[in-house]
Amino acid sequence: MENYNLNRGKYFYVVGLSYKKADEEIRGKFSLDEDKKAHLLRQAREEGIDEILVISTCNRTEIYGFAQHPFQLIKLLCDNSNGNLEEFQEVAYVYKSSEAITHMYRVGTGLDSQILGDFEIIAQIKKSFILSREQGMAQAFLERLCNSVIQASKRIKNETELSSGATSVSFASVQYILNHVKEVSKKNILLFGTGKIGRNTCENLIKHTGNDHITLINRTKGKAEKIAGKFNLTVKDYADLHTEIEKCDVLIVATGAQSPTVSADLIPKDKELLILDLSVPKNADHSIVAMDKVTLVHLDHLSQMTDQTLERRKTFIPQAEAIIDEIKTEFTEWLGTRKFAPTIKALKKKLKSLKDAEVDFQRKKIEDFNDSQAEIIGNRIIQKITTHFANHLKENNGSADESLELIQKVFQLDKPNGPASGNKNTKASSQHDKA
Hints:
By secondary structure, the protein is α/β, with parallel strands linked by helices. 53% of the residues lie in helices and 11% in strands. It has 17 helices and 10 strands. The chain has a 6-stranded parallel β-sheet, sandwiched between helices. A 4-stranded antiparallel β-sheet has the order 2-3-1-4, sandwiched between helices. α9 (196-209) links the parallel β5 and β6 (214-217). It starts with 10 loop residues before the first strand and ends with a helix. It comes from Sinomicrobium weinanense.
C-alpha cells in the first residue's frame, strides 16, 4: 500500500503504547476514561483534525487519525492524560499509512492482544467509533476501516480456532470442572479465598456452570461478602471451613497463605471430593494426594492447560493472517478508488450545468416543452456517462492519474483538494448494536 495522503496534506497515523513495552504503571498514566476521550475528540476538532479514533484499555492506549505530523496526536494524548512526552517516547510506537492500517487489523482480530486470540478489543473499537461519530470525528475512511476490521474479526472467529480453549487459570479451572464433574449445576461448590484469582474463578463458575450452590469463605469475611452480594451467594465464617468442606463436592482453594491451609484432617476419609488448588505457593497439603477418593489438581497442571491452548492457537495464526490479507485487499481497493470520487463528483456537476443550460435553451425554442421528461432523460445520460468514467478509472488504476488529469482538462474541472467526506451514518454503529 502507498503512503496515502487522503486528507489535504495529512497522513493516517496511529500513536500509542501497549503491554509490550509499557508496564502497568505507565499504561495507567496514559489511560483515558470516557470523559477524557470525549474531551480529546473535541480538542482534536478545534485543532483542525478531521478524523480520529481513540482506544484505551488496561493493555493499550492508541489514537488513530489524520495529521500532518504524528506529534499532533501525541500532544492530544499527553494533554488529556497523566502521562508526559518523555514517558511516552520511552515506550511508544508510531505507525503511518499502510502500517497504521495493518496495525488496526492485528489489534482488532486479537493477533496483537496480550493473550493471543482475545477478541475483547473489537468491542472497544466499535464503542470508540460510535463516540467519534457522535463527536463528528468519524467520516468515510474510519467508517470503512472499522467495518472492515469488524468483518475480519468475525470471519476469524467463525473460520478458525484462534480464540478456542482456556487461556486463564480461572477459566481453565472451570473448564476442568465442566469436563470432570457430572451434573455440575447440582453440585455444592466451596470457594476458599476471594483474591483476584478467586474473584475471577467465581465469575467464571457462575457464567459457565449455571450453579447457584456456591459458598464463599475468606479469612476477611467482608471481602467475601462483597463478592457474594454481587452474585447472591452464601458466605460462611473461616471457622466453618471444616463443616463446609464436609458438605461440598468441589473445593477451590485460592488463598494467598505462605503455608498449606487445607490439610487431610479437614476432609472426611471416605468423601469423594475434587480439589483445585489455585494458590501460589500451594495451599492444599501434599498429604491429600494419598486419599483414595480425593482428586487434587494443582495450579501448575492448569497452567499447562493454558500454555497448551496458547501453543495450539498459534497454529491458526497463518489462517487468520490470510483472512486479514483478503479483507484488507478489499479495503485497499476501495481506498484506491477514493481519489476518483472528487473528480467524478465534479464531472457530474459540470454535466448537470451543461444539461440545465441546454434544457433552458430548448424550452425557449420548443412549444409545449416537457420539462419532466427532459430532466429524466438528461439525468439518466449523466449517470451513464459518469458510470463509464468511473469504471474506466477502476479498471485502469495504474494509469488513473493520467486519466484524471485528462478528464479535468477536457471538462475544465477544478482540481479537488481531497476525497469526498462520505456519509456519516455508519454501519459500524449498527454492527455494534447487533454484537
